[in-house]
Design a protein that fits this description.
Elements (H helix, E strand, L loop, with lengths): L1 H31 L7 E2 L24 E2 L2
Antiparallel strand pairs: 1-2
């Protein structure tokens, strides 16, 4: 019975260690390797929460769009 418990504990430790290392590698890749596209929005919010993928001017008030942080 003690041997079965010991084998189970070793197996569970190995599984959790492998999953944690894989998850840490995945999180590292997603934060460092990819740039997210910038979004731009009218500072006066003439169109509510509408955003654009390029900088430019608001079609309603003609103000410069500002990058959403």
């Amino acid at each position: 019975m003690k041997n079965l418990f010991l084998i189970g504990a070793i197996a569970m430790t190995s599984i959790f260690t492998a999953c944690r290392e894989n998850n840490a590698q995945h999180q590292h890749d997603t934060h460092d390797g990819h740039q997210h596209a910038a979004a731009y929005q009218c500072p006066m919010k003439c169109e509510g929460d509408k955003t654009y993928d390029k900088s430019g001017t608001c079609p309603v008030c003609k103000m410069d769009l500002k990058e959403v942080k």
